């Protein structure tokens, strides 16, 4: 069976690849990868292969680490992208709960991971980026609404009159 061609046309980043290696390492935290954890990880690996077209080496690394855990402390520094660090915390929580129980060791590793990842987050920068994104979306929304008003107003003078009246009353039909 030949590997599927990647849909996205791009290769998996080193950061994302290592993020999933960390998730696999976390599945080993209680000493055994449970069947639910294994099924979840194998489904993810299949999806990664479909999207990115994993290399044979990458697939082998995943397979080997499903058998024998990689070292989380060695892998973490390779998860460099902020979205991958955030995703790691999210997927770590999913994987440790996949079998329905949280062992003491899993809980300890999850806390260390959250603390480690949160210490790398520049909250002021994150707030600034979120606000910039919000403003950008608001501007795009306003442009789209203005475009719709012009196009619809040309087709329907009644709409244009009603829209002007409602906006004077503080009601914007397009927002």
Please describe what this structure looks like.
- By secondary structure, the protein is mostly helical.
- It is built from eight helices and no strands.
- α1 (14-27) packs parallel to α3, α1 runs parallel beside α5 and α7 packs across α8 (157-168).
- The protein is elongated.
- The termini are far apart.
- The mean pLDDT is 85.
Question: How would you briefly describe this protein structure?
Answer:
With 175 residues, this protein is an all-alpha fold. It contains eight helices and no strands. 19% of the residues are buried.
Write the layout of secondary structure elements.
Layout: H1 14-27, H2 35-52, H3 56-67, H4 72-75, H5 82-97, H6 104-119, H7 123-155, H8 157-168
Quickly list its features.
71% helix; 8 helices; 2 domains; single chain; mainly alpha; 0% strand; 175 residues
Which structural class fits the helix and strand makeup? Answer: mainly alpha
Helix-strand pattern: HHHHHHHH
As for the number of domains, it is 2
**Radius of gyration, in angstroms, nearest whole number:** 24 Å
Helix proportion range? over 70%
Strand content: under 5%
Shape: elongated
Mean of pLDDT? 85
C-alpha end-to-end distance: 51 Å
Uncertain parts: none
Question: Could you tell me the number of beta strands?
Answer: 0
Largest beta sheet, briefly?
none
């Amino acid at each position: 069976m030949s590997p599927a061609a990647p849909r996205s046309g791009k290769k998996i980043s080193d950061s994302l690849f290592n993020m999933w290696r960390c998730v696999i390492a976390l599945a080993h935290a209680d000493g055994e990868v449970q069947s639910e954890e294994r099924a979840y990880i194998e489904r993810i690996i299949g999806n990664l292969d479909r999207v990115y077209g994993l290399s044979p080496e990458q697939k082998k690394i995943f397979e080997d680490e499903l058998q024998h855990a990689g070292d989380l402390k060695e892998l973490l520094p390779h998860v460099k992208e902020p979205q991958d660090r955030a995703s790691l915390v999210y997927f770590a929580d999913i994987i440790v709960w996949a079998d329905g129980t949280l062992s003491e060791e899993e809980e300890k590793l999850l806390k260390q991971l959250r603390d480690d990842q949160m210490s790398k987050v520049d909250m002021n920068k994150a707030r600034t980026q979120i606000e910039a994104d919000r403003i950008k979306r608001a501007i795009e929304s306003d442009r789209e609404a203005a475009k719709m008003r012009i196009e619809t107003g040309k087709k329907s003078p009644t709409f244009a009159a009603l829209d002007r009246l409602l906006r004077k009353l503080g009601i914007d039909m397009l927002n």
